[in-house]
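User: I'm putting together a teaching handout on how sequence relates to shape, and I'd like one worked example. Could you take DUF2231 domain-containing protein from Nocardioides phosphati, show the sequence you're using, and then write out its predicted structure as tokens right after it?

Assistant: Happy to. First the sequence, then the structure tokens directly below it.
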Amino acid sequence: MFNLINGLPVHPLVVHAVVVLLPLAILGTIALAVRPAWRDTHGLLLIGVAAVATLLIPVATSSGEALEKHVGDPGRHAALGDQLIWFALPLLVLDVALVVLHKRGTSGRAVLGGVAAVAVVAALAAGVQVYRVGDSGARAAWGDQVSSSVPAADPGD
């Protein structure tokens, strides 16, 4: 199912959507955590972006498994990619909580402040994981080709 679209592997196509949308959700979460006024105007957009990114992660992992049958084991990349959903889901839940609590006018500033603080921590953790997955994927796809094509340094230089 998640193998090819028009003769191209689905995995790199979907991964690029995740690599754009999840960092946007991460930055949006941090922005809305520190700027409460933006929650009214941008909260639903943030939830939408985070939801689409989160929904695409299983598509990316499934298509990666299909691609693995053609190109071989990507090693650490597959394990890190499988973990990404566990960073995106809490981020999405915290985004929803932040926006809903704000719209309800929750009386406890401490509650909203606590949710905002936890959301920032979740966003930073998700950002680190996105980097780790992307770095391992780039190394799995390009590591040998790039390092083997670099010319040796001339001893006279």
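A couple of points you could highlight for students: The first helix runs from residue 10 to 34. The radius of gyration is 19 Å.
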